[in-house]
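> example.struct
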């Protein structure tokens, strides 16, 4: 299943997740710091959504209240809420 999310307060502009059975199969990150985001992509691919949320939630970027990793966690929380609402 594809899921798209527009992050807020960060340099990246869009996340496109490919999710199967609550596992990230792939993620495309548009905008942001290419090297860091390529690393995040490789690190989260194959992981369970809940594990990613636990590890990335609350990470800050400098003086910002959020970061790309934190926004990925927020995106996945949003995905879970939407899935729960559909059940």
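> example.seq
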């Amino acid at each position: 299943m594809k899921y798209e999310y527009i992050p807020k307060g960060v340099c990246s502009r869009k996340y496109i997740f490919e999710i199967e059975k609550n596992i990230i199969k792939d993620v495309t990150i548009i905008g942001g710091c290419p090297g860091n985001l390529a690393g995040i992509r490789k690190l989260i691919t194959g992981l369970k959504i809940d594990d990613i949320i636990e590890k990335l939630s609350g990470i800050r970027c400098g003086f910002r209240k959020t970061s790309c990793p934190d926004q990925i966690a927020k995106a996945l929380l949003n995905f879970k809420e939407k899935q729960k609402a559909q059940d």
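> remarks
Residues 68-86 form the longest helix (19 residues).
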